[in-house]
Amino acid sequence: MKANNSQNTNAHTTSESWLRAATNDLRPYFDKLGYTLPEKIRFSISFTSTGKRGTIPGECWHPESSEDGYYRIYLRSDTSDPVEILGILVHELVHALLPSSVKHGKEYRKIALHIGLEGEMRNARPNPILRDRLQAIATNLGALPNAKLNYGAISDLPKKQKNRHRKAECLSCGYEGHNLEAYLVRLLFCLFAEDTSIFERRQFQDLIEQRTAEDGQDLAQWLDNLFQVLDAPENKRLQTLDEQLKAFPYVNGNLFAERLCGRRIFMRSAGMIHSARSILNSSHVASINSLVRTKVSINNCMALRVCG
Asked: 235: how many CB neighbours lie within 10 A of its CB?
């Protein structure tokens, strides 16, 4: 007698439909354990906010970050194993049960362990019992309508710069090329982060305004200290770390991993911003201090192209 394969027929034509059905299959399990999942969730298998080079497998963005009031769950597209994808989904659904300010501390750990996740909480994965449950859900749902994206198939190395182009350069402090580009990207990320709940509201701006000298002479050192803190997990930071710096969250993805050339930057100089003036579309930006203090709009920040 032939086996009945009707359960394996894939009724889903999009990965979002498949993930939504998987979440609905998980709701009774969460309910049984005392946790009610939100109804308004959108799903996507795509790039996370850290991009191709990032390492986070998924993200949950809370309703306050979305104009339509939905949660947004993003899962990296470089895997096609449905059970692995469901494990990441469960990880992000736990985030949806908690406020956006909660990361992977005690509150997250308590629920994650109860649900059936195990391991280091930042990368918590299903234990064998939960994995068997997810395997059954994946089998019932049918094939996931999504193919693995091979990140290594296409090189993302920049094209060789031609002579007619000029790299970004600060004539006052000597910053140029990669160093300057990386510095600007980090500053723009910090501005973006405090507008999107990655940082606390005004956390970066307050640090600059409250802790640096008015003439900007010590701003470079404070920024360097901040970049090192952002690259360090909370449990690996010095106990004697400045309290205001300690309050910043860990940012993975290696954005702050590289130690940039430690040349002194005189922040009253207009040279550094002169290189980015056309990029930021500002007719009156005199220094990095003014960039931070006037909060350049995120739309302009996202248009960054340093070379040209």
From this structure: 6
Q: Residue 278 CB: number of other CB atoms within 10 A? A: 10
Give the pair of three-digit tokens for residue 267: 């922040």
Q: Which helix (H) or strand (E) holds 89?
A: helix 82-96
Burial label, 74 (beta-carbon count in 10 A; 0-12, 13-18, 19+): buried
Which residue shows structure tokens 């207009």? 270
| DSSP percent split of the chain into helix, strand, coil, nearest 5 | 45, 5, 50
Answer whether 0.70 is exceeded by the pTM: no
The enclosing H or E element of 59 equals strand 58-61
DSSP code string of 108-169: HHHHHHHHTEESSGGG-EE-HHHHHHHHHHHHHH-S-S-PPP-GGGS--PPPPPPTTS---B
Cα–Cα distance measured from residue 211 to residue 204, given in angstroms and rounded to the nearest whole number: 11
* Best CA proximity match to 41, nearest among 13, 17, 77: 17
Tell how strand 41-46 and strand 58-61 pair up: unpaired
Side-by-side strand order, sheet with 41-46: 41-46, 71-76, 58-61
Please give the distance of CA 274 from its chain centroid, rounded to a whole number: 29
Q: Is 149 helix (H, G, I), strand (E, B) or coil?
A: coil
CB 75 within 8 A of CB 92: yes
Instruction: For CA atoms 56, 98, 19, 3, give the dihedral sign.
Output: positive
Q: What angle do CA 203, 72, 125 make, to 5 degrees?
A: 90
Distance CA 255, CA 40 (A): 32
pLDDT tens per residue across span 34-70: 999 999 999 999 888 877 777 889 999 999 998 999 9
